[in-house]
Amino acid sequence: MPTIAHVEAGSHVEWAGFLDDKPAFALSEGVAVIAEGGEKRIVLHDGLTAAAPGRDGATLTTGGEDGALKRLGADGGVALLRGATGKWVDAVACGPAGAAAAASGRSATVLAGDGGQRQIACERTIEGLAFAPKGQRLALARYNGVELIWVAAQAPAQILEWKGAHTGVTFSPDGRYVVTTMQENALHGWRLADGRHMRMTGYPAKVHSLSWSARGDWLASSGAPVAIVWPFSGKDGPMGKAPLELGSMGRILVTRVAFHPREEVVAIGYENGMILAARLGDRQEAVLRREAAGAISSLNWDRAGRRLAFGSREGEAGVIDIA
Amino acid sequence: MNIRPDVSARPIPVTVITGYLGAGKTTLLNRILTGDHGKRYAVIVNEFGEIGIDNDLIVESDEEIYEMNNGCVCCTVRGDLIRVVQGLMKRKGRFDAIIVETTGLADPAPVAQTFFMDEDVRARSRLDAVVALVDAKHLLARLKDSPEPEEQIAFADVVLLNKTDLVDADTLAEVEAVVRRINPTATVHRTERAAVALDHILDRGAFDLARILENDPHFLDATDHDHDHECGPDCDHDHDHHHHHHGHDHHHRGLDGRVHDTTVGTVALSGGELDADIFMRWIQQVTQTDGPDILRLKGILAFRGDPDRFVIQGIHMIVEGDHQRPWRDGEERRSRLVFIGRKLDRDKLESGFSACAA
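YS: structure for the whole thing
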């Protein structure tokens, strides 16, 4: 039976996960909590608006209401990546070798691991950011599509067009696909090799959470009363295939999904605070946390896949040990 | 869009302030923020004006209009507001209400529709009212050269006819008549330097089906000659005097662009009891086909066999309706529906409405 260690968050949890395997939580108030051998609270911002973990799992890059960008280490150390701009940071993404990107309104800043900076202007507001697996390219989600820019070169952006507002973006782990969440209750995908479109529709609510399985064979999503898990293993991705539907809890909406770092198991967080783990192969499900006050707002595994950190909109947080 | 019941648990009220450049939006905003009300406001602005805004929590966002992928040209929302309102709600202990100050050129429809069409925003906030500021000195000239002021007035629940000290009485009366002709359902207040009692613009519940039109107790009393303007409860001017000074006609049927350069018209329909099923089908069809031209609609309806008043309000294709309260003893069971929009076909609307009679 899983055990839960509760952590005093106290306000909306923007990100819950692990930094060098230490449970860490970034709160919208602007405080980070590192929970190992007592709780260490670190003030990052007056209002934290975006957060993304580094590829090495050792740092968290955060953006604030004042536009500042900071990097939190597992030891609680904080580095200032960029000073205040006066404008909310809307999205943050991390790439390989310490690279990071942040978007505010219609401009994005790319911070190379060596400290170099580059500004990118966009005609529309940038709602989502994602580095390609190898980090040479950065995807910017905006109204009517995605722009793929070369991080280190001035070559023109490759435009992936699809009508409508794209609010978030992710690359598949093999870099073959780009998938966006939309203002409509839908996902949109492109196969980069030939630009082929993939429409993934039928959600009753907006999709706020996406997670790829370790080998990239599956893409789990929120936005329905079950986790919708699309197959990406064939050469045509999910086209013409039905997704798996895992973890039905009646009409309770799924708000977060997180694939296990190695196995084909997905952790599912619900709007009523429940957390469940579901295995794709045999559809076996296990309840990890019962109903509570707030909707699950963040959910991430540790490197070994033994512990899950979670946070909720109402400031509940904790670590579930499933061993 | 479906007619759907009102969601009552929408705790954070949102007031939208519109108005052309120089109409006094920032002055009004500062009056609200410094008022003696003990409330804390989060303010969303699309541009920092030259005059400062006196508030701790100001969020600047880039106006970002999103068309929805549903084949409807008027189904637009403001992506920046969706993002900022959701972000604000993560730290909701900081404020009691939200004020959105739009740019002088902003279209109010996507702003208002955001609070109905985006489920996340709708779940966390409620649109309280759209307040339009009008510069009494410059409105008539503005109406000739730009479409926005008319749109903003047509869309408003409350109009502040501002800078009244800069015009003479006749001009003021003429400007007010124009405002009321563009939007006969709005409450109009005359102001200098945007000085208005805050309860006239805040907590109006203009989109709250439980309260809608309660601000206008004469809504049902109007005669079928709806081209005569109606006044809200705060109306403080002399009607006879007003009409005496206005020789030009107040009919909405003609667009009267020659006189006042306005293209927005009003169609007000009155009747007795209606058949609920026929009415619902008709209003769905009207808003589906003519939604792009309908800016606002409001109505109180008496359905046969229904002891409750049914109230309805809409923006373009979005229509919300719900039972409001029982008809009172002695209250005449009448139905009244007002459309504000462009290119409204009065004859078609009248015959469609008449066919709903029970």
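YS: worth flagging: The longest strand of chain B covers residues 125-135.
IM: good catch. Also Confidence is low (pLDDT under 50) at residues 4-10, 224-259 of chain B.
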